[in-house]
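Lab notebook, bench 4. Continuing the backlog of folding jobs that were queued last week. Each job is logged with the same field layout so the records can be merged later without manual cleanup. Today's entry covers Protein kinase domain-containing protein, a 194-residue chain. Filled in by technician R.K.

JOB TYPE: sequence-to-structure
TARGET: Protein kinase domain-containing protein
LENGTH: 194
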Amino acid sequence: MASTDNLDTIYRKHENILDLIPVVRRREFSILTQPAKSLKSFSLFRRGCDERYISFVVMGVLEALEYIHGHEKLVHGNINLNNVFLDKDCNAKLKSPLTKSCEIKDQKTDIQMVGELALSLFNGKSGFKFGIGCVSGCTRKKDDGFEVEDFARFCLNPLRTPTLREVKNHDFFKEFGKFDQYREKLKHRLQKKL
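JOB STATUS: finished
OUTPUT FIELD FOLLOWS
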């Protein structure tokens, strides 16, 4: 009988994955989730947010993808504002992946979706059409967003999709690499909503 006493045997062993937890109590099967809210539910992310917070959230997604691709041999296949969450400690979490075997082509699709996610966070809108417009130069602020646009172009390059390692080593994360500091500032800004 499954129990919530030993949660690390029920949860996936990665902090950046929001997982369904199967629990059996008195012969009844139920599913629980970790308490978290999708990015789409926060007005900060619907209006478009600062590149510091984007780098923090996207790095959390990349950490989850590294685990999903490498350890579980799966791809996610649906990375967007509805499937990325923040928990009460402002950890970025990616909803559990689709159960799909991992192939290089599919991994590349996940990488491209990360580029689209970065644009969605910056502009406050989802969708590939808007993403392509942004990469072409139509951002929400004319004097802002160069780093996130460069990162998105890198991920969305139709001629050569980068590897996950190359994406994690992109200059975007070197520019905005103070993730602990961003977590605390984001937690403070969203304090009442988490």
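OBSERVATION: The two ends are 32 Å apart (CA to CA).
SIGNED: R.K.
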